[in-house]
Design a protein that fits this description.
elongated, 213 residues, Rna Polymerase Sigma Factor, Chain: A, 2 domains, mainly alpha, disordered C terminus, Arc Repressor Mutant, subunit A
Length: 213
């Protein structure tokens, strides 16, 4: 019986073959997941060179430690994003210290997950009204734990469950952080509009996520 073409195999099958020494399987897995990992790292740190380094580190880690992947804990894609996230956070701590959390400025904590589902997604109007550069900079200015859920759920279009697997946290935590991140972004961008004499943006659904890519 002829085996399935490499490109038709699942991520998990490619990993198994890769760990057995199949270079074609590694190449197929790299080709399938490299671009998404790169975009995630770039949207998290804003540096092309760092994003390129993160991609290389992720796949080197997969070669060294791929046997640690446990399919019972989530998909291989989520596992790779989790490795990338750890690499990015280490880079941010070492090379690009951020200012105090925006929570300290506003005095607000994370909102409940149910509230996040009850309210419309607030960023669609902002995505249309603001330049891509302004929105991208606002995302980069978020504290890392808010930025990563925006990047994964809004920009990478992951489900809450997939993002939770990548971040190693509960689905409810992803929801509450995403809700809080959206609120911070609305406030920050509304301040920019206010300085320009424009009307405060409405809080509508975020259908314009791809403008960040």
């Amino acid at each position: 019986m002829t085996s399935a073409p490499t490109q038709m195999r699942s991520d998990e099958e490619l990993l198994r073959l890769m760990l057995a020494g199949d270079e074609h399987a590694f190449g197929a897995l790299y080709g399938r997941r490299q671009a998404g990992i790169y975009r995630f790292a770039l949207q998290m740190c804003g540096s092309e060179s760092v994003a390129e380094d993160v991609v290389q580190e992720v796949f080197m880690a997969l070669i060294r430690e791929g046997q640690r992947f446990d399919p019972a804990r989530g998909s291989l894609s989520s596992y790779l994003y989790g490795v990338a996230r750890n690499q990015v956070l280490r880079r941010l701590e070492r090379e690009r210290p951020f200012a105090a959390s925006l929570d300290e400025e506003t005095g607000h904590g994370e909102a409940a997950g149910d509230a996040a589902d009850a309210r419309p997604d607030p960023l669609s109007e902002l995505a249309r009204a603001e330049t891509v550069a302004s929105v991208r900079q606002a995302v980069l200015a978020l504290p890392a734990h808010y930025r990563e859920v925006v990047v994964l759920c809004e920009l990478q279009e992951m489900s809450y469950a997939e993002a939770a697997g990548a971040l190693g946290c509960a689905v409810g935590t992803v929801r509450s952080r995403l809700h809080r991140a959206r609120s911070i972004l609305v406030d920050k961008l509304a301040q920019q509009q206010g300085r320009g004499g424009e009307e405060r943006p409405r809080r509508e659904s975020f259908s314009g996520a791809r403008c960040f890519a």
